[in-house]
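User: Write out your own:

AI:
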Amino acid sequence: MQLTREVQVAIDGPAGAGKSSVAREVAEALGYVYIDTGAMYRAVAYRALQAGLDAEADAQAVGRLAGRLSFEFRAIGGEQRLFVDKQDVSKPIRTPQVGNLSSPVSAIPQVRKHLLSAQRSMASSGGTVMEGRDIGTVVLPDAQVKVFLTASPTERARRRQEQLRRKGIEQSLDTILADIRERDHRDSTRAVAPLKKADDALELITDGMDKAQVVARLIQIVHEAEESA
């Protein structure tokens, strides 16, 4: 029996599409390594906030800051955590304030340059699931599996509201929806690595699908790619 080859899996999509949770479960089911690139940019945004830096006015300083940071993903107690300079930042990087800042931070060329090489190195041997905004178009353009995971803005806002509630954070649906639409516009119109579907990516619209169905579909796609690799 021929053994399957581990492949690179690139998952892109807008904010609130559920990329992180889906990618994490797909990686776990396949025995792959999950690389949350969005968490890395959130970590830079978090450190910039701590340093009192503005993403637009202090772009060069934020870029230099990103170059000084070390990143490490660790699996602890069944959860993947992100350590920056050996400090666990998994929880503080998930606040709405950090989330809103991560988009302009990720548009800074120096920041992207520092993180891009690290991300490519992590995925170089295959057996990785990486998700973000520009994985299939910029970070891993030769990935064997490319999926653009999306849902309607209203559905994404509803999911985000439920996610925040589970963390004890209350926000109105209208506020979240407005934030998502604004972020969609920023991400898709930014000059550096804008959010867009790769020409050879499969678009998966998840309205009406639960997470288990989305995960199962992605696992099927990866298995098909492994068999043809």
Q: What stands out?
A: The radius of gyration is 17 Å. The mean pLDDT is 91. Residues 1-32+127-229 form a domain with the Rossmann fold fold (CATH 3.40.50.300). Strands lie at 8-12, 33-36, 71-76, 79-84, 87-88, 128-132, 145-150, 202-205.
